[in-house]
Amino acid sequence: MSNGSNTKEREAKWGMIEVKVRFWTDKLAMKGSVIPKHAWSSGVVRIVANETHGMTSRKSLPFNSLLEIGSTIEKVLIEQGVVLYPSRRMRRYLSDAPKRKRASREAQ
To answer: How do the domains of the chain map onto residue ranges?
Structure first.
């Protein structure tokens, strides 16, 4: 199951793909200060450059609520051509999708 043209195995210098989620902390305290452990529910997601996996730094993608973090991470991974495989735990929720029968035009 390869997605890109650069799918040959390589020596693993670093065996993980890292995604960073960063929350805005501005305008919660006086200028030049922060309130420790306080942040807005919005921010940016970015993928960390990783030579082993052929990933380069790109522009961070913003999210505006906690509900958007998952879809923003998905966009960042797709942008880099990352292919994800379901873990053992995730597989219990998946099954082979049944084949759809296409209705013939004559039946319509």
So the answer is: 19-107
